[in-house]
Amino acid sequence: MASPQQPKIAKRPSIRRLPQYLSLLRQMRSVGRPNVSSAHLACDMGLEAIVVRKDLGITGIEGRPRIGYEVDALIKAIEEFLGWNDTSSAFLVGAGHLGSALLGYGGFADHGLDIVAAFDTDPGRVGTMVHGKAVFGMDRLAELRARMQVHLGILCVPASAAQAVAELMVDAGIRGIWNFTPVKLKTPDDVVTHQEDLASGLAVLSVALSQLFATQQD
Amino acid sequence: MASPQQPKIAKRPSIRRLPQYLSLLRQMRSVGRPNVSSAHLACDMGLEAIVVRKDLGITGIEGRPRIGYEVDALIKAIEEFLGWNDTSSAFLVGAGHLGSALLGYGGFADHGLDIVAAFDTDPGRVGTMVHGKAVFGMDRLAELRARMQVHLGILCVPASAAQAVAELMVDAGIRGIWNFTPVKLKTPDDVVTHQEDLASGLAVLSVALSQLFATQQD
DNA sequence: TAGATTGTTAATCGATTAACAATC
DNA sequence: TAGATTGTTAATCGATTAACAATC
Q1: Of B58, B86, B92, B138, whose CB is crowded by the most CB atoms within 10 A?
Q2: What average pLDDT does range B157-176 have in this prediction?
């Protein structure tokens, strides 16, 4: 009962892997490699080839038997699928340790992201520059967001302030929040959030490490 | 055919959620709350109560009907399960933007982690202090690791150096690598790694955001 | 053509959700 | 006791893996 030409639905795990394909493909392009097989990509990423083919399928790109995928076309298709082909602006809220680091991290340009300004409640930080980005008071958020047409906000405040600040961002018109706090945000349906939880990654590693030691009777 | 008292196997998604329970429970403890139900935790985390009960089950703690879980006991059990009850030392390799930020981030203490030293290849950084942590040359890695009994390494070098530096860490005796590079590391079986991939999180958010705009005919 | 590689359709696997008995 | 909440067992759901036909 499937429609004859149904658009492939992008599963979350596949989306998560796309940036890694992109990184590999850009490397290949930089050394002038024209084509690549799913088996080759799979080897580089520690996956099975069938996973790669399924993942790449969601971008709409088709490979050619005996040849594989065209590196250039694949890069373009992934960038377009992710919306990373043209740069979008973001605000960063909370210019503490982690926030400052993200302001200084140059790699976001590869992901179509440009952090154009930072915001903070600390009067000692407001008015300063951090890695070349101006830090504004929270009272300027709505005004500057509208003027600069920014839709994405990066949340780097302490856990205790997370929900309240997120609400300020939503009120100011921010539609997507990249949440670096350990707090699960409650936001309206027309706002999307993604929690980047460092602690959860450390938990997985901690358990794996203790299992490793346990199996070795250490 | 299950053994009568089989130890619950900890699934990855459950492990990932444990730090968030821990964070909430510590908050509850700080305001003197003695018990909490799975329904209450579920509400705070945006989950179903049954998920919470399954997750907490892996720590070995049992709740009591009509009362719920004891906050104190649950905190202890999660900390113990994750090995966060006593602090373990870690080295950080690559003291650039992100590396420096992690060195300055105080929150790892809550997760039983103490970054005791940093390493870098840049002669301009070696010998300096970053956020109170000494930066050593890579040649000191093996010696200091053995002396300080460090098992965990945090990898924050550029993608191009990631695999090579990871191999140096393994050779030096590091058994767990928290990988902040976009490179899938190839390591021996007796080394565990966890990739903390910011780009994958951004990808999920980017796609969700563009779907949001698409459904609104923006 | 023969052979390699893709993409599709089906089967397996694992995680989540639901139903319900146990218990305080 | 009655009622609320837990933990277990079964059912559903979704993702991964396998088998294989299509194609250059």
Answers
A1: B92
A2: 97
